[in-house]
């Protein structure tokens, strides 16, 4: 399709808009893996009923499964990750929805990683490891950082994923923008308002400086019986650049703080393309590349 601007026509293979959803998930204790998967299925079926094309789940959304046994170690929790991702992949195919399985702990070669999986409606599964584990993740769970940064091509645009703490490193967002990212997905897990606001403010900055939409998805509540789950604070949101034609405060939609709920919104990709050509400011085009540049080390970009 063609988008007309004041000075030129912009040709794009992508649609004018896409409906996206974010699930703000309540932490609760489950008696079995099947009960947990039934809960996730309920939300994804609901999102499909709202005609969402893409749905985002929070970071470490499987942590309640640690309450099913006496050993609550992250390594044992990782044993459930494969079954959870495969189940969500099956739902994505059945429902015709792309689902970002926020992130789950995964053991690879004896090392523990925090990995988000993009489960496609066509059946493929693609991964993005968290690049910057938090000091807490490194100290108490010995989680390692990944060393690849991916952009996923979809029929509605190019998608990047930065897991929680990763969005607080502006270099990563800019590297994704250099690969023509349209949507940035940020699953997060924060235990207080200060931590949440670090993620939120950085996500809004990434939307502005990289001329993209950002989808945030977090967890709320606590489970006293599970030591690994502190009190969770979240206000999931769908954010936009800040300019004429976008929402006044750069917020397309947002959840109520600390309530389990779903948010759904249509993001205007046509307007995004026009904004990149004729916005009030042009952060990407106006960079002084004659003075500075940003590069990923050879062999590290996927």
Structure description:
This protein has helices at about 35-50, 75, 80-95, 135-140, 170-175, 195-210, 270-280; strands spanning about 1-5, 10, 15-25, 55, 100-110, 110-120, 125-130, 145, 150-155, 155-160, 185, 215, 220, 235-240, 250-255, 260-270. The protein is of the alpha/beta class and about 300 residues long. The two termini are about 30 Å apart. The protein is globular. The chain has one domain (about 15-280): Nitrilase/N-carbamoyl-D-aminoacid amidohydrolase. Strands 3, 4, 5, 6, 7, 8, 13 and 16 form an eight-stranded mixed β-sheet that branches. Helix 1 packs parallel to helix 3 (about 80-95) and helix 5 runs parallel beside helix 6 (about 195-210).
Strand content: 25-35%
Percent in helix: 25-40%
Largest sheet: 8 strands, mixed
Q: Give the SSE order as H and E letters.
A: EEEHEHHEEEHEEEHEHEEEEEH
Q: Tally the helices.
A: 7
User: What is the average per-residue confidence, as pLDDT, rounded to a whole number?
Assistant: 93
Number of domain modules: 1
Top-tier CATH class? Alpha Beta
Q: Rg from C-alpha positions? A: 19 Å
Uncertain spans: 1-9
Count of distinct strands: 16
CATH topology: Nitrilase/N-carbamoyl-D-aminoacid amidohydrolase
Termini separation comes to: 29 Å
CATH architecture: 4-Layer Sandwich
Shape: globular
CATH superfamily: Carbon-nitrogen hydrolase
Task: State the secondary-structure class.
Answer: alpha/beta
